[in-house]
Design a protein that fits this description.
Radius of gyration: 25 Å
Low-confidence stretches: 243-247, 321-358
CATH class of the largest domain: Mainly Alpha
Number of helices: 13
CATH topology of the largest domain: Methane Monooxygenase Hydroxylase, Chain G, domain 1
CATH superfamily of the largest domain: Peptidase M41
Number of strands: 5
Structural class: mainly alpha
Length: 358
């Protein structure tokens, strides 16, 4: 940053996660000699970050940091640090000598989908609704082309959700084609379509899905020019009034007739996505039922298990009940309640078994 004194030995560094709201006087030519944009890390950046955060952690031989880096697209540095810390906590909880791949898999799911709430009491009817809802998401994602692979499906409550269908892209994505976005809208409506087809009723469980699908359709129409009726135009200027208690407001710069056309296009895109999802599920109702039954039995399905169900293959029998504890002996005082577990976890983290051998 220049313009203060002639002393060239003074270097001023400033950082902001909202450069769009900075005073134009700070951004005029000559103020900042260098502007460095720090995006989310790519696969090589994630690998380097993982190496930094795992230097003091004893890793099992089955942990491959390169595979972890490739399997965490979209993770920022804080996400990767949190994943490593959670993996160490899982290992310490059960007195393991090393942090293994299973610990990292659990930690990645916790970062992606939130912590499991196994203590939450859910009735059998709600559990059945959640299983068919997630089965609808899953099957639509598998049947549509050019969609991200299914990483895991669970009906165990995580965060604020009763169930989660998690997709992970294979490679980094920087631009999204129109067909991909339309497929995402159909996937979001897969849960509501399954509820109406199988259960013959609609529930509030699809509230967040409908909100996300509507926002995605609005962005397609108003920001990305993906409406054939309106053409390649952008509607609604952003009004940067973050210091007045609002984040981003839209300034209306179009007529009432155009507003009605925008509403009609958003409604058309969302309706077509719902109709597409309903059609795919109605043509594959046996698969929906099989996926839901497998979810009710196992509570969690991995991507390869979903593929086997779709191919009509039998799944391997469960080695233990879904809610049973891992085979490792838990540390003293460690249970399922995260609050009561704090003393036991602290003792586990001080366990010399997790200190790297010199």
């Amino acid at each position: 940053m220049d313009g203060f004194e002639s002393n060239e030995g003074v270097i001023l560094i400033a950082a902001s996660n909202r450069p769009d709201v900075l005073d134009p006087a700070l951004l005029r030519p000559g103020r900042f000699d260098r502007r460095v944009v720090v995006p989310r890390p790519d696969v090589r950046g994630r690998l380097a970050i993982l190496k930094v955060h795992t230097r003091s952690i004893p890793l099992s031989q089955d942990v491959d940091l390169d595979i972890l880096a490739r399997g965490t697209p979209g993770f920022c540095g804080a996400d990767l640090e949190s994943m490593v810390n959670e993996a160490a906590l899982f290992a310490a909880r059960y007195n393991k000598n090393h942090v293994d791949a299973q610990d990292f898999d659990k930690a990645k799911d916790k970062v992606l989908m939130g912590a499991e709430r196994r203590s939450m009491i859910i009735s059998d009817d709600e559990k059945r609704v959640t299983a068919y809802h997630e089965a609808g998401h899953t099957l639509v994602a598998k049947l549509l082309p050019d969609t991200d692979p299914i990483h895991k499906v669970t009906i165990i409550p995580r965060g604020m959700a009763l169930g989660t269908t998690q997709q992970l892209p294979i490679d980094e994505k920087h631009t999204y084609p129109k067909e991909y976005l339309l497929s995402q809208i159909a996937i979001l409506y897969g849960g509501r379509a399954a509820e109406e087809l199988i259960l013959e009723e609609a529930t509030t469980g699809a509230g967040n899905d409908i909100e996300r699908a509507t926002e995605l359709a609005r962005s397609m129409v108003c920001e990305w020019g993906m409406s054939e009726t309106l053409g390649p135009l952008a509607f609604g200027k952003r009004d940067e009034q973050v210091f007045l208690g609002r984040d981003l407001a839209y300034q209306k710069d179009f007529s009432e007739q155009t507003a009605q056309t925008i509403d009609g296009e958003i409604r058309r895109i969302c309706t077509e996505g719902f109709v597409k999802a309903r059609r795919l599920l109605s043509e594959n109702l046996p698969l929906v039922r099989r996926l839901a039954e497998a979810l009710l039995e196992r509570e969690v399905l991995e991507g390869d298990e979903i593929d086997r169900i779709i191919r009509g293959e039998a799944l391997a029998p469960l080695r233990e009940p879904p809610r049973s504890r891992p085979t490792h002996r838990p540390a003293a005082g460690v249970g399922d309640d995260p609050v009561s577990d704090l003393p036991g976890l602290a003792a586990s983290l001080r366990n010399p078994k997790l200190v790297p051998e010199s």
